[in-house]
Amino acid sequence: MSRYIREEVLNQPEDFVNFMMNDFLTKHGFQYKEFKGQMVYRSGNGAFEMAKFFVWNYQNDVIHVEAWMRNVWLSDVYGRENGLSGYAGIVPKNAYKRDIEQLMQLLHQPAGAFGAESGAQPGGNDTVMVHGVDTVRYANMSLAFGILGLVFFCVPYAGLLWGILALIYSNKGRTSSKSGRAVAGLVCGVVAILIAAAMLILNIVGITTMIGEGIE
What we know:
The chain is of the alpha+beta class. 46% of the residues lie in helices and 25% in strands.
């Protein structure tokens, strides 16, 4: 088993921890499902990156989290468990680890009778505003990769690579405070993929034609 396991003492109100965990799971697209006889949170279908899995519990002021990834070969057919280091295709797996580390930092912020910037839950006159999870870095990455895809469209494989990365990170960044950047990255990524694919086809046709003329 290669799971990432982390346990920390929080000493935070249970409703605050529940709110922060639900905020994290919702913004990262997790759904609560049964997997091999265990109820887990799962995100992703394995198309461009591995499916992510997550379980957690909070007891006696201690938060316990476990996270791992798996390849998806077919519907409901999975590869072995993978840790959060290395790459899953073209996407670094440690990005998932950084997301969890950001969450753990947010869980240590002052809570009290809290409200939240992303969906306030007021606790009375002494409400404390807390910072929710923000996936803005994914929105920024989507826009950056989308622009790179457009710039390097004349190098088809590079344009396809940047365009696909723009699509992947756009999906993650659309729940952020800068969702407009994620949408712009999505548009740029799609355009970059289409142009790069067209250039690749033209190159293949051109090479094929040259080979045919050489044979004649």
